[in-house]
Amino acid sequence: MVDARAYPTRPFLAVSAAIVRNGQVLVVRRARPPAHGLFSLPGGMVEAGETLAEAVKREVMEETSIMIEPVALAGFRETIVRDADGGVERHFVILPFAARWIAGEPKLNEELSEARWVRPAELTDLPTTPGLAAIVAAAFERLEEAG
């Protein structure tokens, strides 16, 4: 199976969601590369012709079966992975949203091995993708500002 995202000629645009419910955020453990075994936010690639908000709602629904309301961007992350020779193996620009939970409970699939609702302080005890705690903190701030 060829991975179309390996050794790209351009960065790929992705979205994710810090989904907040009752003071907790949903984190998911990745079941395969990239970020295999790490907790992160649910999300995925933006498709041509869809808005960022449409993409994050679709990706979260596909990954977790949860309906969300995206509220505001909570920052950005850029992931560049180089191979042993210095070649760009992967390059993603990720736009995380602060989002409110609307309905549903997480359902696992081939991409996710675990899903947990956690308080932000609990993130320090989990193996996470780089910068996850800062994105979650920013998401809580955006949601508080939005009321």
Provide a descriptive summary of the structure in words:
This protein is of the alpha+beta class. The protein is about 20% helix and about 40% strand. It is built from 2 helices and 8 strands; from the N terminus they run E-E-E-E-H-E-E-E-E-H. Strands 1, 2, 3, 4, 5, 6, 7 and 8 form an 8-stranded mixed sheet that branches. Strand 2 and strand 3 form a beta hairpin. The longest helix has 15 residues, at about 130-145. The radius of gyration is 15 Å and the shape is globular. The model has no long low-confidence stretch (mean pLDDT about 95).
- The average pLDDT value, as a whole number, equals 95
Helix/strand-derived category reads: alpha+beta
Inertia-based shape: globular
Main sheet summary: 8 strands, mixed
The unreliable regions are none
Order of helices and strands: EEEEHEEEEH
* Number of E-state strands: 8
Radius of gyration, CA atoms, in whole angstroms: 15 Å
Classify the helix fraction into a percent range. 10-25%
Q: Separation of termini? A: 46 Å
Q: How many helices does DSSP assign?
A: 2
Q: What fraction strand?
A: 35-45%
Detail the topology: elements first, then pairings:
Blueprint: E1 12-21, E2 24-30, E3 39-40, E4 43-45, H1 52-64, E5 67-73, E6 77-82, E7 88-103, E8 112-118, H2 132-146
Parallel strand pairs: 1-7
Antiparallel strand pairs: 1-2, 1-4, 2-3, 2-8, 5-7, 6-7
Summarize the structure.
It is built from two helices and eight strands; from the N terminus they run ββββαββββα. The longest helix has 15 residues, at 132-146.
